[in-house]
Design brief:
heterodimer, A: about 400 residues, 6-stranded mixed β-sheet, about 35% helix, B: alpha/beta, 5-stranded parallel β-sheet, 16 helices
């Protein structure tokens, strides 16, 4: 099939402005749909266009629409928004993309959806815009044409933005010679685009594309997930010193001649040290304390944990079962080392110590004797690194 | 999902199914074993102790033997049975340690299970399991990790009209002949990216998942061979390889393999008249970009002309826009070469319309 001259020109125009999109733009499969009146893209990189409309739009307009739709595909909106109400999902996804698609480089054939047009701040994710749209009683100050035809960039982009197939779209590609890009191929294209963005000269790539590429190539681990894994490991590391014991007969003893051991598991003791000095961010502190308490409950510590409120001295020590029982006292200088040493003197003696702090504190030279593992949760972006003998986790909002 | 599972089971690569409780991991195994007509033994790891997998020490006239429990004997008798280890992530760390040999070497106590036994394990994600542990990295490295995803639509269909058992493609008997080929493919990939041979997971959250090591690359080679033997599609290959060595390394391998499939630019230049453009636009672009890059790297009049011939052929075959972008690069890096008026004329209107001139 010959691609119309306008479409050819639009594609090379996109690449003239943004060469890093090459593999995504060329992977698109062109499907002419006479009478569609506009353009739309599905989740398999198939671009449906009305051969008549693209002669009416300028090359820059067609190119802007192509680039907008590529952004949907690259940001996986069709996966992220699947199952949401399609129209709102599409508007939310458009708002995420369009917040920095303006200026002389871009020209939409319709009025594009922007965060401003839905009364939202810029720089949020589609999911956040979607939640906000659901809350707004009368969400739409944008005009959407009543006949259901697509409005690329303005709330109707086809299934690339919502994951919900539209009436004019073809079936999912099946087999090797089907038209369209399979999810596995799409993933390779996505990585290729991200790698090209990383290799581009700084300043030639739009900020949102750069952020996107960073996220694709080195995904950030959510601190909640990391914190949960570390606490689970530390507790398992202690519980895991499962040993054989002959103090009680084995349940398998029976009449066998071999004396079998039983298994015993020491229950770990955990102490939490909370930095109550004046500089601490209370919201982050209560969030992370809640997380720690939840994780400890989930791994089966039913006897509660010792909680120490520490500034320059230990202010309070209390055994709690629930994070709501914690009282925070203090406000002076900071020394977490005092807290850790105090924790080693508790009865029963903890093996695992979790410290919640902003990091502006002296630390002991090495791990105090008797402890098996120390986890330091550093609250806030500006927190300095914790000691090397502890496991450090950065907690940021 | 069941395609990937059946390929891994037939290739005798240990599989670990991750999925929330109640998403049908166990029923999938049972259905598969019925279709494949193989005996299945289900062992729940969380209620076992290390001796159940390491063997029970029993005194005999000659010494102490490590006796295997009955399920292992039944598997040994069955020949090509399936060992299904359920709830592996809630087993205590000591029990998990005892499982290491069972999973990869199929050894239970003093009993060696037949080589044709498949090992499948299932686990709930640690964040969802009550009292769950993350798998230790050595254990995680012995499995191909598959994630059970739930598709509400197909579940609704299944509830209304009965769950259909997916068609299973049986591996041909001689599939193992493909192993040397896929091994050498992976070996030459590692030669280019040696740092991907071994990457112990650093983040705690990633420790219980797939990561690249010589062992997991070896499993990846087996699965790649099995996939090639039945011409499985890209998606299945990507899922299985990611399950062995992790998403990043697997995707990097697939991307590298894709560039291997492209024709060599030097060969194309030598036979410029016969140039045939790849069907997919992104591949065509990659080929033309490669041609332009080798020509500008070593510029002679002959190669310069050949490059223009290739661009003209590409334009004739419906790739005018793709060739136009390559043509622009070629022109800007010509270093004093004469511009071929006839070939260039072909692209000028398009370049003008696209705003490149």
């Amino acid at each position: 099939m010959m691609v119309p001259l306008e479409m050819q020109a639009a594609r090379i125009n996109v690449l003239h402005h943004h060469p890093y999109l090459a593999s995504a733009v060329w992977a698109m499969h062109m499907v002419p749909v006479p009478g569609l009146k506009t353009m739309a893209v599905d989740q398999y990189f198939r671009l449906y266009f009305d051969p008549e409309i693209i002669t009416k739009w300028s090359v820059r307009e067609v190119a802007t629409v192509i680039e907008h739709e590529v952004a949907h595909l690259m940001r996986l909106h069709f996966v992220r928004m699947k199952g949401c109400e399609p129209q709102l999902a599409n508007i939310a996804a458009d708002a995420e993309i369009n917040d920095d698609m303006f200026g002389s480089d871009f020209a939409f054939p319709f009025t594009p959806v922007t965060p401003k047009s839905i009364n939202q701040p810029i720089g949020l994710l589609a999911e956040e815009y979607y939640a906000a749209l659901l809350e707004q009683a009368q969400p739409l100050s944008i005009e959407l044409s009543g006949d259901g035809s697509p409005l690329p960039g303005s709330g109707r982009c086809g299934s690339c933005a919502t994951g919900t197939p539209q009436p004019w779209e073809m079936e999912a590609p099946q087999g090797a010679d089907a038209n369209g890009v399979t999810p596995a191929q799409a993933e390779l294209i996505r990585r290729d685009v991200a790698t090209k963005i990383k290799a581009s000269t700084p300043g030639t790539v739009a900020k949102s594309w750069k952020r996107w590429a960073d996220e694709v190539l080195s995904p950030k681990v959510n601190w909640r997930k990391e914190l949960a894994a570390v606490v689970r490991h530390s507790v398992a590391y202690v519980i895991g010193s499962t040993d054989f014991s002959y103090r009680r007969p084995s349940r398998r003893q029976g009449k066998s001649k071999v004396i079998l051991p039983t298994m015993q598991q020491p229950t770990p003791e955990v102490a939490i040290i909370i930095d109550t000095s004046g500089s601490i961010d209370e919201k982050l502190l209560s969030q992370s304390l809640g997380e720690v308490a939840g994780i400890l409950k989930a791994v089966g510590l039913r006897n509660g944990v010792a909680v120490l409120a520490v500034d320059a001295h230990v202010q309070t020590t209390k055994r709690v079962l629930d994070s709501r029982q914690v009282t925070l006292k203090g406000g002076g200088g900071t020394n977490m080392g005092v807290g850790i040493v105090a924790a080693t003197k508790l009865k029963p003696r903890p093996q695992v110590v979790i410290v919640l702090t902003d990091g502006f504190t002296p630390w002991p030279e090495s791990m105090p004797r008797g402890l098996k593992r120390v986890i330091v949760c550093l609250l806030g972006v500006s927190a300095p690194d914790g000691p090397s003998w502890a496991t450090n986790i950065r907690i940021e909002t | 999902m069941s395609q990937e599972l059946s390929i891994a089971m037939q290739a005798r690569v240990p599989v670990l199914l991750w999925g929330s409780p109640g998403t049908g991991k166990t029923s999938q195994i049972n259905a598969l074993s019925k279709t494949l007509n193989r005996h299945v033994e289900c062992v729940i790891a969380s209620i076992r102790e290390p001796a159940d997998f390491g063997g029970l020490p029993v005194l005999d006239d000659t010494g102490v033997y490590l006796h295997a429990p009955a399920w292992a004997h039944r598997l040994a008798l069955a020949g090509d049975g399936i060992l299904f280890i359920d709830e592996i992530s809630t087993a205590a760390p000591a029990t998990q340690a005892a499982l290491l040999r069972v999973v990869l070497d199929r050894v239970v106590g003093d009993l060696v299970l037949p080589a044709s036994t498949s090992v499948v394990a299932a686990a709930n994600p640690p964040s969802e399991a009550a009292g769950g542990w993350d798998l230790s990295p050595p254990m995680a490295n012995r499995f191909c990790h598959l994630h059970c995803t739930l598709d509400p639509q197909s579940w609704v269909d299944g509830m209304m009209s009965g769950f259909s058992i997916a068609e299973i493609t049986a591996l041909p008997i001689e599939w193992e002949n493909k192993i040397p080929e896929s091994r050498s493919l992976i070996a030459s990939f590692i030669k280019h990216r040696p740092y991907l041979l071994l990457q112990l997971p650093v983040a705690d959250a990633a420790r219980g998942m797939a990561w690249p090591s010589p062992r997991s690359w070896d499993m990846a080679a087996r699965l790649l061979a099995a996939c090639k033997a039945i011409q499985a599609d890209d998606g299945i290959i990507a899922t299985l390889l990611s399950g062995c060595v992790g998403d990043g390394p697997a995707l990097e391998f697939l991307a590298w393999q894709k560039t291997l499939d492209l024709p060599d630019p030097e060969t194309l230049l030598a036979n410029a008249e016969q140039f045939k453009m790849p069907e997919r636009g992104d591949q065509a672009f990659a080929v033309l970009a490669a041609v332009v890059s080798v020509v500008t790297h070593k510029l002679t009049e002959k190669r310069w002309k050949a490059a223009w011939t290739i661009l003209a052929r590409a334009a004739e075959q419906g790739g005018k826009d793709i060739a136009a972008v390559a043509c622009k690069t070629l022109v800007t890096q010509r270093k004093g070469m004469p511009l071929p008026v006839k070939e260039l004329q072909e692209f000028v209107p398009l370049l003008q319309k696209g705003g490149l001139l």
